[in-house]
Amino acid sequence: MGDTRAIHFDVYFDNPSEFDMTIDFGTYSLMVYYAKQLNYEKAKLLYDATLSEYYYRATYNKPLDDLTDEYSSHFNSDEIQQVIDFIENDLIPELNNEKQDLIEKYGGREGFYDRFEKDEGFIRGFIYEDEWYYSDPLQISSLLDAFKSLLSHVIFINQAYRVSIR
Prior knowledge:
Blueprint: E1 6-10, E2 21-24, H1 25-38, H2 40-49, H3 53-59, H4 77-97, H5 102-105, H6 108-118, H7 137-157, E3 162-165
Helix pairs in contact: 1-2, 2-4, 4-7
């Protein structure tokens, strides 16, 4: 296995927090792809909530002039609340009822990579064939539950979080 990437969410920029989390990029890609198959519009909000403000603006051709921190998340509390509701009411229940490993559901590793790379819409970027991932629906459900807690906390403190891929 090569060097795998991960997406990091840091709530307090200078101090580690119980809400900070890391999701390997393969699992993140699988999670967003699954969400998109369930509900395109809600999954787009989930995807947007995982972007830095810089990447969000660049993706949607919005002005970049007044940005001060390229890693600060795209933060819209109304949209984040919709993401929390989507995770809690739709994604987690669907994943908990999923009977099949998600990679197998999408035709194995090669089938998933092919689907992901050819996917139209808001999913951007690419995944490498040797990305690490969890594909068990219950593990992904657990990660989404932790992400939901992070999002709930940032709404409570009314503060963006930091997003980076390394």
